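thoughts on both lines:
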Amino acid sequence: MFNPEDLAKLQDKDLWAAFDSAEEDLEKLEIYSVLKDRLWEKEDYNTIIGLSDRMCEIAENSEEFELVGVHRYTQGSAHFNIDSFAEAAHAYGLAAKAAAELGDQGKIAKSLWAKADSYFSLDQFSEALETALESAN
């Protein structure tokens, strides 16, 4: 396992090399957490989107269910930032589902609110309202 402080000190190319060479799924998840933050700073949303599905699969297989929701939410935010609002709504819905499985009401509401915002951006106002009301429950 990697120390998060050590990972944060790595240059991008070394971080990618560590990610590519990691043999354990939990190591990949740890490295991706740092890598994701760097990709976000660079506004490399397409790479985040592409890696998120794989990281969710690894998180599910590793029974790291909270991370499933985190990565789906991040994926939704990346889609939203490139104006892929339908894909964002879908990813936020999956994040809400993951939060519901954990019983985390705060994350359910946050994910549904983001999903509602995605619908609003699509001019799907009835879906936006319905989802926003659902987030309040």
